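User: I'm writing a short report section on ligand binding and want a predicted complex to refer to. Could you take this sequence and pyridoxal-5'-phosphate and write out the structure as tokens? A short remark afterwards would be nice.
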Amino acid sequence: MFRIKRSVYLDNNATTPVSRLVRKRIGYILKNIYGNPSALYHEGRSAAVILEESRAAVADAINASSREIFFVGSATEANNAVLKIVLSQRDSERREVIASPIEHASVMETLNHLVSQGIEVSYLPVSAEGRVDPAQLEAMISSRTTLVTVMLANNEIGTLQDLRSIVDVARAAGARVMADCVQAFGKIPLDVQALGVDYATLSAHKVHGPKGVGALYVREGSPHRPLIHGGHQESGMRAGTEGLHNIAGFAEACKAIPLLLKKAQKLAELKRFFIKKLKEIAPNAIINSTARRCLDNTISARFPGRSNAQIIAALDHYGVSVAAGSACDTTEDAPSHVLKAIGLTDQQARETIRISLSTYTKPKELSYALRVLGEYLNGKTPAINIVAASQLNQSFLLDPDLYILDVRFWYDRGLLKSLPNAHEISFFNAKKYLPQVPKDKHILVACQNGPNAPFVAYQLKALGHRRVSTIMTGVMGWRVAHPELYKRRAGEGVKRLVIS
Ligand code: PLP
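Assistant: Sure. The structure tokens for the complex follow:
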């Protein structure tokens, strides 16, 4: 039905395509500037010059001084580094961290770690739009609070926070503020002086830079401690020889930020166009992203009664890439903590997809994505049958007409045994093995807990398989629904597929 299958990338909050100038710069550095920036001879000195020029470029992009910028391996690392400073305060009076409940996993998981180490963590309420109310912070904050952490823009729904007011409240109580600025960077003007934050974290790959490099801004005078010990690199904050090609690529991406911001108007228009057309093709769709003070590139949309895993796999089948929530959650089926914090139920969170645009996104790409989505929602593209885990009793599973394809990751197989007589293949490599799957059987594709199997099921449909099903909650759901059967038959007769 779609004669020309396009490749339309609409997951720019997960990562962005690397710009041409960044690629060129990285290539140049890899070829020509291989010296170690710590070495004193000329190759080292040339590398050190590039390192410091890059630092200045990142600093310029957020109105900081070079002395306040530390290069790190990712924003995840930067978030960890800041939050873990608090560990040295676990025996002091000031040992509470206040956080928004919609922070990225790199903050949420680190906060859980802090709690296990004796730090108190309190969560602010957020409105249905995902907004923190500074007045509520004022009511919660006390002389026990050492740090407040609130992201500037949310990665799943795009909500922007009133960070300046949050900083004012924190300052008045003598607490410091960390802002995860990863998603705001390059989408709205970012001025750390104007915001008044003590710490800000950035990631290169969200602004058309390379993966594996980020920056930590530490306002002059704010405490900081090394997360990685060893050499004296990054003023002793992060030991290890710098990945200069990545750092220079990041700097190149930062130089293009004024242009990205200029084009932001186009993003707002694209987003309005997408939402308007989406309402036409799916009148019952609900937009979770707020209309005001929200990133212009982010659309969180809910399709009542539809599973997001199925929608995402169907779109992927026609070359359109969107996400369920944050990139870190795409291999897990846990409902998004962000969507739950703004009041959605588990079920509603599982009906939600995230579409995130970039200035590279073209209107015709959005029109194509909308067409694919419309055809899927209107039942015009092949749908995959979904079986509830409770249906998988002994007679269902041992039916000779059934062929079970287990596409779980190797680490998931270590946690749970397979369905009896399953054929195990690798999820990432499945395409190569699928021609061996018999065409005359009912194929049941199994993943650990639901979201991965539909992708493989669509590949089977494309190969001409007519009867293809997936399990709603995967092997995990089966173990819960049939614990006795799991005990007796799981792992029995399992075969590993190889290419014949
Ligand atoms: N913070 C936010 C808000 C993000 O969206 C992400 C990435 O998805 C990160 C932090 C982590 O960034 P990195 O991939 O550089 O670790």
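A remark for your report: The two ends are 32 Å apart (CA to CA). The chain has 20 helices and 18 strands.
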